[in-house]
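Lab meeting minutes (informal)
Scribe: AK
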Amino acid sequence: MRNAEIGTLDPAKLTREDHIDISGTQCVRVSDRYRPDGDARISAQLSAVEFPHALFPPHTAGFLYYYQHPPPAPPCAGEIRFRITPNVDPVGFPAGRDLTLPSGLPWHRPLIGLEKKRLGRVRGMLYPMLQRDGLVSPEVLALASNLKVTAHSTVIHSFGQPFEMALNSRKTITILGRKEVAKLTLRPFILRSERRGLAAVQQTAPYLGTAICHFQRTVSLGWRDTLSLRVEKYVEGPTRNPDFVLPRGTTWADFPPAQAGELVRLHTYYMLKPRSKEVGEREVGGRDMQRPFWLRYSHRGESKTEAEEECEGETKGVRRPFWLRYSHQGNMALRLLLENEPPDS
């Protein structure tokens, strides 16, 4: 662990003393240079857990700073980032570049996951520093400290905002609203199975790799507001999973991976009941491949227009949608994303 002292997170107030070098370390303990003597809120720890070998990359020297997403993003949609600069002079801050993850997304720590209340008070130095710099109001800090999110959570607040997903594991996304959060746990790249009288088939991923995805707002099956998932690009893969066993009667052609720019489509395989004595105990497979991943938002009391009755674009002709385990999660997530949309959208 490396120790560092800074006096501000405001890019306009940076000095040479705020320049720190965290290359090759697992964690940096940041303390406030201007903290009052005896103040228990002495430091904050920022780790490199997302990087290979959990180490910050070489030549990671620069400034920690606070970035606020522009409106209509909610007030709590801010984050700590690290700006790499060529030297210790803060004049070079605008010409620097943000520290990025192997996926190409910026390394950051969301405001709502920085510090939490313990024994009735917020313990740490980042919130007091942000308030002292005038970057975040006391009301926003009080709200952020009460939202239940960890420091390494994936937090988004708008359609089209990219995030990273592994193809062979589930992903929990935190949707940030103006005064609350919703959590979605997704596994759209994993083979989904349903019980049809016999034991369910495996639930594993046909492919390995990592993708950058985003949610988008579409119209599907007559529902005006639908949350779909689109692949922007692949960071790794997709490569065939050697542990994946093809269900009986299928080939790899039945499980094509989503291409960059396409909607994510679910892979589903059903186990059916035997239809005759001749079949006996043999498993009869039924396939319903290539359903798009989507969640609908119900507008109660509103009638559908003619255009809304039709499926549009890539979702046309789909028979069965994908649902989260708890349907209220999808409704709440969509509601928060829609609240953060520009008024004219």
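Next up, CB showed the second protein from the same session:
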Amino acid sequence: MATIQRWLIALYTMQALVAEYLKLKGKYPPGCSAFNHISPDVERDERDIKEDKETAKEETYDENTLISLLENSIAYFNQSERYEMMPEVFKLLQPFYEKNRSFVKMMEVYGQLAESFAKIVTIMQTDRRYLATYYRVAFYGRVFEDDHEKQYIYKEPKLTTLGELTLRLQKLYTKSFGADTPVHIIHESGKVDVSSLDLEQAHIQITHVQPYFDEAELKERKTKFERENKISRFIFETPFMSDGGKGHGDVSKQCMRKTILTTQHWFPYITKRIEVAHVEQFELTALQVGIEAMEKKTQDLAEVVRSSPPDAKKLQLLLQGSIGAQVNQGAQEYANVFLRPPLMSTQPIKEIQRLKEIYRAFLQVCKEALELNEQLIVDDQLLYQEDLKKKYEQMETNLGSLIAIDSQAMSTSTSSTDGFDSLSRNAHRMSSLVFDSISSISSMNSNR
């Protein structure tokens, strides 16, 4: 599939070139800009082509060339499972078909569109399409020549694991450099101290990354496909302890460094890797980490409560993780640490209030999730449901004094499906409150 996707990119690059040529001849005014909705790289790379005097009078391409290229791409969109792009291709074809009265072709394309929409509906219901997995790969060592201290985003097929990519690259470069040049893998995701490395040997740092979008982009990109197409920014997280310690210890000291990488081009692209052009970092305090974690936990549960039809298995897994955990673990841990003296008095008031608000929303959605689960369970799960109810009541009691809420208020509060719009906007990254109090932001050249 990866090869098909790259061939598809090459195909619509050819389409854009032909369109720009026809624009030059006055036969297709939009030119390559008509393809900007398919890939932002196309217009940037192919616009304003020049025609030499020798071939100025030749008719190298015509309208039928563009139509044929567009029609050929339909099959590749199907094979690469990018069904959402089919309507975009048809939007480009339709004016030609209408002008040429190509009713049979329009009938055929409408049939293909209907099939594509049916596949999209199935995918959205099952959530079983995996287009790609992304990794940041950084190279250190003189043997890499121009790639020394450069980093790339690799687009790997479907659910390629970190281990699979690591093994492949290690074999590739071991074969390339020979047995006399060891290839070392750097497993930590943090900044590499180049001065500590033997630059006569090869060092590769591989880190899993995810596509990153800001709040405005998230409002526009509503579906999973829209968040996997035309992407150029990626993010990964590096946990660290505020006291300089290693590993995961006291949550009051567990901070997070987030790194956002911007590539030179947009994925999908004609190559499987794209160089990183810009790097941005920011850090979250331990409290901000707790705020983000509880936002995500609350949003995940709210989405399952909202889903139709409900996913009973997923609902029960989330309930177990939210309610079934011990008092000083899981969801209650942040409240016990940050909402009790003396630590609470040392934290920013707005962030403490935000954490309390999230816990109120969390208790409410847990209550609704329990009610939904009661409707879905079978007879042999009744004891399990009663156990969850008791644990919820205990959790409500434990948290009640910390977030200034009582059971009566909980029973009359607003439904989670009405009250989670703000959390929904924050589910993919931290809330604006957290951004306002980011401890440090730094930009750096991707060669560092």
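CB comment: DSSP finds 16 helices and eight strands in the chain.
No objections, moving on.
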